[in-house]
Specification:
With about 220 residues, the chain is mostly helical. The chain has 10 helices and no strands. The longest helix is centred in the last third of the chain and has 23 residues.
Length: about 220
C-alpha cells in the first residue's frame, strides 16, 4: 500500500522547519551570534529536504538569520532576549507560545519551542479542525503527527468508499493540499517527484516554508 509512505512523509515533514534554527549556545553576544548564525544545530540537522525545495530551504535559513541579526545586533538588550522577542513577534500569532515557552539563553531551545511549537499548534488547528489545540509543547511534532495520521485514515476511508476512480494516494494527498490551502504555485514544484513518499514530504515542506516566510515578514 504505497500511499502509507506518502502520508507518513507528509505527516513527518511538518517538523522539518526546526532545521532552520540559526544556532545554539548558552549566551549570545553580537560576535557569537554572527559566528553561529549560519549553523543549523538541532535534532533535525540530518534532515534532507526534497530536491524541489532544497534551494528554498537555504534561502529561508538565510532570511531568518538576516532578520534576527538586523533586529538585534545594534541593541543594548541581551541578544538572547531580543531573539526571543523577535521570534514571538513573528510566529506566536495565537499568543500561546509566550506562555508555554519560558525565557532562556539557549537560542535552539527558544526556536524549537516558539517556532516549531507555534507551527504545530497551527497545523493541528487546520488539519485537526481544533479551535484551541492542546498540543504537547515538549514534543509538538508528536501532536502534529498524531492529527495527521487521524486525518489520513479518515480521508482514506472516504477515498476508498467513494465513487472516485482516482488512486487512494492521490485522493488523500489532494485532501491534505486542500486542507492546508496550498496554491498550485506552491505545489507545482512537488509534481516533478515521481516517488510518493518524496511527494508527500514535499507537500509538508511547502506548507512549512510558507509558515516560515509569513513569520519572518512579521519579525
Amino acid at each position: 500500500m504505497r500511499w502509507m509512505m506518502a502520508l507518513a512523509a507528509c505527516a513527518l515533514a511538518g517538523g522539518v522547519m526546526a532545521c532552520q534554527s540559526p544556532g545554539t549556545g548558552t549566551s549570545y553576544s553580537a560576535a557569537t551570534a554572527v559566528e553561529q548564525a549560519g549553523k543549523k544545530k538541532s535534532k533535525y540537522e540530518d534532515y534532507k529536504p526534497t530536491a524541489p525545495m532544497k534551494a528554498r530551504f537555504t534561502d529561508m535559513t538565510l532570511a531568518l538569520t538576516r532578520k534576527l541579526l538586523e533586529r538585534c545586533l545594534d541593541l543594548d538588550a541581551p541578544m538572547a532576549a531580543c531573539f526571543r522577542d523577535r521570534l514571538l513577534n513573528g510566529f506566536d500569532t495565537a499568543g500561546i507560545a509566550e506562555k508555554r515557552c519560558p525565557p532562556g539563553d539557549d537560542l535552539e531551545e527558544q526556536y524549537n519551542c516558539i517556532v516549531v511549537g507555534s507551527y504545530s499548534y497551527r497545523f493541528v488547528q487546520v488539519i485537526g479542525k481544533q479551535a484551541e489545540p492542546d498540543i504537547d509543547w515538549s514534543d509538538p511534532e508528536r501532536s502534529m503527527q498524531a492529527v495527521s495520521i487521524d486525518y489520513a485514515l479518515t480521508k482514506l476511508k472516504n477515498c476508498l468508499g467513494g465513487s472516485s476512480a482516482s488512486d487512494p494516494t492521490d485522493c488523500v494527498m489532494a485532501g491534505f493540499i486542500k486542507e492546508l490551502d496550498l496554491t498550485e504555485e506552491e505545489v507545482e514544484p512537488c509534481r516533478s517527484l515521481t516517488n510518493d513518499s518524496e511527494f508527500g514530504q514535499c507537500i509538508g515542506e511547502a506548507y512549512g516554508l510558507r509558515f516560515m516566510a509569513d513569520g519572518i515578514a512579521r519579525m
